[in-house]
């Protein structure tokens, strides 16, 4: 797909409406529709945390499924851990700091910066979506609505705290978020990173995506959840960057 003909129109290249033609509240209205679609602000306010279990597959597993876990804590903390055969890989955002750790790299975990840090925060915000309007600035609506996987979607564009350009694609009928695109500055220019969301299911009174697929220039991974426990006890230290990656990271026992 990278070297083939782009779709018409390319969803990554949707331009924003001119300011003269754009309602300043249009983007927030779409975000409000999303919040309502997943259960509403009152129900989301009752979701203080969650623990999820499932599987992960990607280039680092030779696309074989391995156990995976995701933990979240309101308002914007999130950690994922994949139990690879050679050890655990983890990626986290603790509300301010983002980091990644891999068992095959026995040094200090890598602290995220720039677009990677912005992405970690947006991923956490998607888990607790009332934070999106707060953490994305310069919100505006992409025009026109486009087709994505056979569905008409509305595009909301915004800028994360570190300056990363973010596009959110919402199903025009259901209001649910189906894709997040981050436009990252790399040595080969600006490249998109996609996070696709599907298989929404009720967790308590809130809908959450049970399938999350990430695609970037040279790789792809898929996380498929099998169970999610809302308002489970999650200790704050779960999100804190460990001193080294030599010890196996323990999630839930």
Structure keywords:
253 residues, mainly beta, 15-stranded antiparallel sheet, 4 helices, globular
Commentary on this structure:
The structure is a single chain. This protein is mainly beta and 253 residues long. It is built from 4 helices and 15 strands. The chain has a 15-stranded antiparallel beta sheet that branches. β2 and β3 form a beta hairpin. It is globular. The model has no long low-confidence stretch (mean pLDDT 87).
Could you spell the SSE succession in H and E letters? EHHEEEEEEHHEEEEEEEE
- Oligomer state equals single chain
Q: Uncertain runs with pLDDT below 50, 5 residues or more? A: none
Largest sheet geometry: 15 strands, antiparallel
Apparent shape? globular
Distance between the termini: 41 Å
Radius of gyration: 18 Å
Amount of helix? 10-25%
Indicate the mean pLDDT: 87
* Class by SSE composition: mainly beta
Q: In total, how many beta strands?
A: 15
Alpha plus pi helix count: 4
- Residues in β-strands, percent: over 45%
Please summarize what this structure is.
The chain is mainly β and 253 residues long.
Write the layout of secondary structure elements.
Elements: E1 15-16, H1 26-37, H2 41-45, E2 49-58, E3 66-73, E4 77-84, E5 87-93, E6 98-102, E7 110-111, H3 114-127, H4 132-135, E8 137-143, E9 146-148, E10 151-159, E11 165-171, E12 177-186, E13 189-203, E14 206-216, E15 219-230
Antiparallel strand pairs: 1-8, 2-3, 2-15, 3-4, 4-5, 5-6, 6-7, 8-10, 9-10, 10-11, 11-12, 12-13, 13-14, 14-15
